C-alpha cells in the first residue's frame, strides 16, 4: 500500500466527512492513475467474463450436438451387430428358393439355421439381453404373462406348465414377458 493510500484510509477512518476532502488529499495525477488502474481492472474482468460466456456457450452447443448424435445414432452398434445375422438368413433363403428345393440338403440347411441362431444368441448376449424361459418355475407376474390356467396334479399350483413364447430381459429389465400356461390345483 502506498503512503497516499494509507493517508486516504486513515483520513476516511478518522473523519466520516473526509469524502469531501478526497480531492485535496490526492493530487490530480494520483486520481488519474487510480482511475486508469480501475479501468484496466474493469476491462480485464469484462474480458474474462466475455471469454467465460463464450466458453459456456460453446460447451452448451457441443453438449446439444453430442446429445443429438447420441439419439440419432444410438442404434448404430446394434445395427452393425445384427446385419451379419440378416446376411446369413438371406443366404439360407437363397439356398432353399422355390425353384431349387429338390437338390437341397436339409441337413446343411438345418446346420446353417443353427449357426444363424447362435449368431443371434451371441448378438443378444453382447447387448445384455437375456432369455426368460420359466418352465417348471413359480409364476412371477413381473416376468411372466399367463395365457391360461390349467389344472394339474403333477406340479404344485401356480407353477409354469408350458411356455408359449420366451421372454427377454435387457439389463435385468423386462423387455418382453414370457407367455406361459400356469398350473392350478385340480
Give structural notes.
With 186 residues, the protein is α+β, with helices and mostly antiparallel strands. The protein folds into three domains: 3-71, no CATH class; 75-127; 129-186, Roll (Nucleotide Exchange Factor Grpe, Chain A, domain 2), CATH 2.30.22. The protein has five helices and six strands; from the N terminus they run H-H-H-H-H-E-E-E-E-E-E. It has a three-stranded antiparallel β-sheet with strand order 1-4-5. The chain has a three-stranded mixed β-sheet with strand order 2-6-3, with no helix packed on it. A hairpin with a 2-residue loop joins strand 4 (167-170) and strand 5 (173-176). Helix 4 (76-95) packs antiparallel against helix 5 (106-126). It is elongated, with a radius of gyration of 39 Å. The termini are far apart.
Kindly report the spatial arrangement of strands forming the biggest sheet. 1-4-5
The helix content is: 40-55%
Poorly predicted spans: none
Class based on secondary structure composition and strand pairing: alpha+beta
Radius of gyration computed on alpha carbons:
39 Å
Largest sheet: 3 strands, antiparallel
How many strands appear in the DSSP assignment? 6
Secondary structure: elements and pairs:
Blueprint: H1 3-14, H2 22-25, H3 28-72, H4 76-95, H5 106-126, E1 129-132, E2 144-151, E3 160-165, E4 167-170, E5 173-176, E6 178-184
Parallel strand pairs: 2-6
Antiparallel strand pairs: 1-4, 3-6, 4-5
Helix pairs in contact: 4-5
